[in-house]
Amino acid sequence: MPNLTNSTTSILKATHVPLLVTDSLPAAGRAIVKSSYVRQLNLQTGEVDAVAATLDGNAKPAAAKAPSKSTDMLTLLRQFESPQLASQLPDPSAFVNIDQTDLAAFGQALLSVRQRAVKQISAPGSQTPIARNATNTEMINAPPSMGWAMNQLNTGIVAVNQFGANTAVTPLGMLNLERLEMTPAGIERGGLIATIPLAPKERTSVVQKEWSVTSQEFTSIVSDSLENYSETGVTENTQLTQATASQVSHANQFNINDSVSGSIGFVTASVASQFSTQDQTSQSASASRNHAIQTTKKASSRVKQSHKVTISTSTVTGSSESTTRLLENPSATDPIRIDYFSLMRKWYVGLYRYGLRLTYDITVPEPAAAMRAVYETLRQLQDQVALGFTFPVQYNEITEEVLSGETDPNYLVLAQRYAAQVPPPSEAMRTRFISITIPNLDGDNNDNMIFNLLPITVDDDYEIDDITLEVDLSNSAIDRAIHLSGYGPIAVAAGQFSTTIDLTAATGFMAGYEGAQTLSYWITNVGAGTISYTLKMKWSDEARAQWQSNVWNALYNASQTVFYAQQQALTAQIQTLQDKINNVDTLTLRREENDEIMKSALRWLLGPGFEFMPPEVVNLFASASGAPGSAARINALTYGVNFTGNDLPNSGLNWNLMYANEDRINFINQAIDWDNVLYYLYSYFWDEPLSWDFIRQIQHPDSTRQAFLRSGSARIVLTVRPGWEVAWTNFVEYFSTELPSDLPSHPYLTIAQQIQDYDSTNYPGIPPANPDGGGPIDDGSAQVGTTCDSDLSASSSPVTIPVADSAGFVAGESAVIDTWGSGVQETQTITAVPDGTHIVVQALSSAHSMTNQATFPIVQAGSKGVLIGEWFEYTPSSGTDIAVTSNLATIG
After folding, report:
1. Rounded Cα distance, 209 and 308, in Å
2. 612 DSSP 8-state letter
3. What are φ and ψ of residue 344, in 5° steps?
4. Domain extent listing, the chain
5. Mean pLDDT of 329-352
6. DSSP string spanning 443-503?
7. Mean pLDDT across the stretch 422-431?
8. Which of 1.10.1760, 2.40.30, 2.20.200, 2.40.128 would CATH assign to domain 784-860?
9. DSSP secondary structure code for residue 124 in this structure
10. pLDDT at residue number 639
11. Within 10 A of 850 (CB to CB), how many other CB atoms are there?
């Protein structure tokens, strides 16, 4: 059956190989690593001098052995002590000629200084001052806190350890670009589904059912989303490429090691090796083949498990449905057997290696820090909702007094605080004056008696505080007396016109009485006169308590109303944030993660002096947005709608400010292939310990995003574009975007040049899986391979090379001669193919000997690359095959 080459589909993959460099490295270089290390030390004012004093002691580290270099280093490091602005820091290129051993020795000495500071602070009664950052809340030279000193010590330890790790390993690596191609290669009979035996003349009915179970545990495939294709129904179960891509997506959910920030489907991690092993004995090729085979076989197995066909028999009585087959054995003497087989689709799978890229590893902290902000807000809102309603005001706080620092009575202050309508308090005191006239019965000096009732009315919510009695009588020559019930007589001497007495003050008379009261009195030896009393009433304690209760209830209800309104608003905010988190498509999630990876890499490469939007440029944007403080300016800056017209703003600022780092930004974006960047996520415990509990509880419906959010740090593998290998290595080593005319002697630059040369020959060096061609599917774009068993001499003129088979070689194409490990591999143009056992190349730059090998390969690498592995996979189709009394020996 012909191969359906027009139905070939492919999945991109890669194999990452860290490199081991055993050659000694020069002191110069690693500018970015050194600069990053010094920034992480967080040097404080006076610490460099303290370290210098330590270096002058008896135990001198390496930095003390080179006074001139050490002096230059210390002068440079003093510029990092408590800088006010990150832009004031020296350029990373200033560290090119600083020996990394000197920097390591400085870090160890700095740790000793900070350890002594911690001991001094912990000593009883210690008030030893230490230099502080001017941006701290405490004053410079003020005694530091133990927490601050411990944090400084921990910061130094982390920086020193990370610097040691970064300088001990090789940041360079290789990324082998590969491709899995899957082509339908025919239909073959599969396994036996069912067997139905029929006796002579026996009749039975058969029901065939086929169904597919689509697994929902795999996330949507991004490539399908790009093609507006939905992986549903039997499509997922029959297409090997879709199943493989889904299997890769599923595997990535449970693998925190490698993720792809671009177009590569999945990555195979290979062991670290030297560059020279990228030849016939390449471990990366073997690891890639094994990983790819396992992936496709698991996908094929999953398809088989989810695609089911069953055959059952039933007895037909009366009538049968249209889906039922009626089978009958026509023979009256011989039994027969009906065998049902599944039809399997055969797939040819080819693994091609088509490119080699230089990689550069960096490690960044908290790659998802910006994305966690919404979770921090969500947690704070959820904590507020979970607290429940509490009312902090106590009864005794409700008073009509004006407290210290306030201008209004405290109950009004509380009313304003909780937006409540509260009743005002009653008057603290009330006074009433009552006068009664005594009639003249028989004139003065008569021994008479007057009896009367004196009504006393106390206002509601009040009680008697004091009663003062005043008596005015006519002139009399005899003593007189006024008798009050419950109090006793009040004597008025002869010749005395009036008398005043505070009844309550004297004996507590009627104090605390409430409501309507009656005072009985009688008077003897009285002529004409008046009796008056002053009634003072105070606000009762019960009434005050009731008022406080009413005010408290009003405050409580108002506060509760506001609280539940706030709870509803908080709940709405929580729902909005959750919708914002959950209702995002997969492509947007990956794009956001890629942006954060890129931002983290730029920060590490360009340092704190680099600002994505410098203040000067912000001012430039603001000047185009209206008057300072105006709503138009605020909205324009907030929503990014500054330049919506046809004209640029007339600003006094220089537009060149926007291009201050243009050369470096352009260089990085051109040199790095951001479509093929890898990153390895490290778990939450590589982050600040205080944040562990929060980070590991972050949840997201997309498992890839959840792993990204929970990562404590990330190792980013930057992939360098072809042709930029040397320029990039020079940039990270010397922080220069300009290549010098004479490159420094550096092993990293040598490796970069070798990889650049290696990739320019259309990726040779890996022996083909099928030396005779590109596998069973040959559309003219696969590589052609053969071998030569003769010694060849160098020549500037055309050379005829005897080969095992010249089939497929084409004049005008390039032939890669010999292996990379031979040291003489070269690429030459084919000028002629005279017969089936010879090819002619335009020249030979090197001699190729058979001394250490039986043959050497000659490969015409096609556009597909080099085939490094091929195998077949099988997936079930929707068809079935039927055989009558098939040969049991041929049944699989």
Report:
1. 8
2. S
3. -105, 135
4. 31-169, 368-583, 611-660, 784-860
5. 88
6. -TT---EEEEEEEEEPPTTEEEEEEEEEEEE---SS-EEEEETTTEEEEE-TT--EEEEEH
7. 88
8. 2.40.30
9. T
10. 66
11. 13
